[in-house]
Amino acid sequence: DPLFVDANGPDGIAGTEDDNVHLRGYSPCINAGDPGGDYSGQVDVDGQPRVAYGRVDMGADEVFPAAGDFEPDGDVDFADFAIFAGNWLLGVSN
Asked: Can you give the pTM of this predicted structure?
């Protein structure tokens, strides 16, 4: 399971134009593409560079994680803030 955002889209039918085949932030396809491939000049389905952070994702979408998405689940929300706040002073000594 590549863990697409919504493989069937709002109409509930896979393979139609409303499908959201972007990868979730915790997809096993992230950084799982062929590291030996030549991706120079290639872009993903969104027109973004095909390789992010030195590794290519498997499939047609390259994931660029959002800053602050600590879970990671593809969005920044209260759960991310809770992780951030819980770790704010860990390891800091005065």
From this structure: 0.68
Q: Along the chain (94 residues), what's the average pLDDT of each consecutive run of 10 residues?
A: 93 94 90 92 92 88 85 81 88 65
Give alpha helix (H) positions in the chain: 78-87
Q: Using CA atoms, how far apart are residues 61 and 78, in angstroms rounded to an integer?
A: 26
Between CA 35 and CA 91 the distance in angstroms is 36
Domain ranges of the chain: 1-63, 69-94
Rounded distance between C-alpha atoms, residue 84 and residue 78, angstroms: 10
Q: Tell me, what amino acid is at 74?
A: G
